[in-house]
Amino acid sequence: MQKDFRLEWRQRATLSGMLLYVGSTVFVCYISFALRGGELPAPAWNALFWIILLFTAVNAVAKGFLQESRGRQLYYYALVRPQAVILAKIGYNVLLLLGLGGVGFALYALVLGNPVQDVPLFLLNMALGAIGFASTLTLVSGIAAKATNSHTLMAILGFPLMIPMLLLLIKVSKNALDGLEFDASRSSLLTLVALNMIVGAVSYLLFPFLWRS
Question: Where does the sequence pass through the membrane (predicted)?
Fold first, then answer.
């Protein structure tokens, strides 16, 4: 994780590009709705927010393994256990997506308004989404890095895996927008936690076999 943070700091253009991507997509939403005098309905606000976060996650996490050269991966193989590599990559991507998600939510709420009535529940849901996106896409990035056309393969493998998680995230965030009681979202939140634990466990168990290939 320390190596990834140092590399990100040295290549600040990449992080600036991701922040620019978030800002530009929010601005496009603004000129499409608010600037034309139309008020954005809560369901559309919710759907657009998760679309922005989803594509931001794909762009941010895709470089996790795709930027590693073959020689560097061989060097890591001689130094550390593969489980340490995948857990460090997931941890770094979780922190990165939490930061990007927080910035995106702040910009989105500032430009298009904040219809969320239960902000703590929405932020908790967003944190679970960041963890789920990071763990799923990190493993997919490791798989795609072993093949040609890796960026295309990343999208093909990643989106179907995230659809069940995305449906739960949209449901919980809609409950937060409507201000429903926490009990209405409890089962969905527990399911999200279970999905994140399953993806993390699968990554921990299967990545060593991928690492040796």
Answer: 12-35, 47-66, 86-110, 122-145, 152-170, 190-211
